[in-house]
From TrEMBL:
GO terms for cellular component: cell envelope; membrane. GO terms for molecular function: transmembrane transporter activity. The lineage of its organism: Bacteria, Pseudomonadati, Bacteroidota, Flavobacteriia, Flavobacteriales. Residues 1-22 form the signal peptide. This is Membrane fusion protein, cobalt-zinc-cadmium efflux system. Keywords: Signal, Transport. Gene3D superfamilies: 2.40.30.170, 2.40.420.20, 2.40.50.100, Helix hairpin bin (1.10.287.470). It comes from Maribacter dokdonensis. The keyword Isomerase does not apply.
Length: 397
């Protein structure tokens, strides 16, 4: 009898235990499913921001459909303003001399051929007297040559005398021509010298039109030949000289547009067009020179000024939104689709892939199909995202 009771009790205990386990298993499963559904619902709920009309107006929200814009891709580049070599001149003297007077100062505008200084030295006077003596001697030898030629042709003069006279005359002509060329280099008129006028000083002239950049000499100073005395620059042909790094060289070519700024005109963007791309790299940094002709020259553009530029390397139409409409979360980008719900406004984040940036706009592509009539928030994207995070934090508690 006792054994039966124990068996019955044992069966009852086992039954109760199994039932309890079954109930526990069901209890463990059901709340989890319910909780999962609730969380999904909550996540779905906080994946949008609702604004009243009053909030909408206070934030000055801007909404519109996607814009189709011409989007330009750019290569950023820095450099300086420069002038071509033919528009820069270093004025030197070809003979050692003393500076008698200086006719210009830095900043002066000079014309081509204008006198910038006067030089004087005994060597200059000696060059003129040497020329005058050589010219007089050549004139004498010419007459002797003509006389010997007549005698030789008449058969009363020797051939040797005629040939000697001819050789001496030819040599004297070469001497005169050489000395006359030297006088031209010194800006001395050989005709005046032949007439007996010896210049006491010579004029140093500018070979180009431009502005005086440097004055490297003083009155009375003795200057050696080839010493740079003045520097003149023609700024009419100032251009943008940009440095393009190796990774961007293949994108840049002749004819592309450049927008750049200089510190002397801080609020003005200047435009230029590339007319030359160097074929060799500079060593430090490893980059190539790109030269661009400035189209809208304004203000005081001086060679050597630092510039910051952007080269337009591509131009195509794309769907775009203002940068103020896009947020970044981790490595993903989102925009906010807008719908009017009664008197309120609904803003829902939609993932996008961003492309070209142009000024304050960025091209976007959507991971899902979007109706062409969908409206988007054009501003305050980070405020809307902050509201979503605030909602997530509240649900977490």
């Amino acid at each position: 009898m006792k054994n039966k009771v124990y068996k019955i009790l044992t069966v009852m205990v086992i039954t109760i235990f199994v039932s309890a386990c079954g109930n526990n298993e069901n209890d463990n499963h059901s709340p989890s499913e319910e909780q999962k559904i609730e969380v999904n619902k909550e996540n779905k709920e906080i994946e949008e921001v609702m604004l009243s009309q009053q909030q909408f107006d206070a934030l000055k929200m801007k909404i519109d459909t996607l814009a189709l814009r011409n989007m330009s891709a750019y290569v950023e580049a820095n450099g300086t303003l420069e002038v071509p070599p033919q528009n820069e001149a270093a004025i030197t003297t070809v003979v050692g001399a003393n500076v008698v007077s200086i006719e210009i100062i830095e900043g002066d505008k000079v014309n081509k051929g204008q006198v910038v200084a006067y030089l004087s030295h005994p060597k200059i006077i000696q060059a003129q007297t040497d020329y005058l003596n050589a010219y007089s001697n050549s004139d004498f030898l010419k007459k002797n040559y003509e006389r010997q030629q007549k005698l030789y042709e008449a058969g009363v003069g020797s051939g040797a005398n005629f040939q000697k006279a001819e050789a001496e005359y030819d040599a004297s002509k070469a001497m005169v021509n050489g000395l006359e060329a030297q006088l031209r280099i010194l800006n001395i008129n050989s005709t005046s010298v032949r007439n007996g006028t010896i210049a006491q000083r010579i004029a140093l002239r500018s070979p180009i039109e431009g502005f005086v950049q440097k004055v490297e000499v003083k009155t009375g100073q003795y200057v050696e030949p080839q010493t740079e005395l003045f520097e003149v620059v023609n700024t009419h042909h100032v251009h943008a000289d940009l440095m393009i790094f190796e990774k961007d060289v293949y994108k840049v070519k002749k004819g592309q547009k450049v927008n750049f700024t200089v510190q002397s005109i801080p609020d003005t963007e200047l435009a230029a067009e590339i007319y030359s791309v160097s074929k060799t790299f500079e060593d430090n940094p490893k980059a190539v020179h790109v030269h661009a002709e400035i189209e809208n020259k304004k203000g005081n553009l001086i060679p050597g000024m630092y510039i910051q530029g952007k080269i337009q390397v591509d131009n195509n139409q794309a769907k775009a939104l203002p940068e103020s409409a896009v947020i970044k979360e981790g490595d993903r980008y989102y925009v906010f689709a807008v719908e009017k719900e009664n008197d309120d406004w609904s803003f829902k984040p939609i993932e996008v892939v961003i492309g070209t940036k142009d000024s304050d706009w960025v091209s976007v592509q959507f991971t899902d199909n979007i109706d062409s009539n969908t409206q988007f928030a054009y501003n305050n994207a980070y405020y809307l995202n902050a509201e979503i995070k605030k909602g997530e934090a509240e649900h977490a508690h």
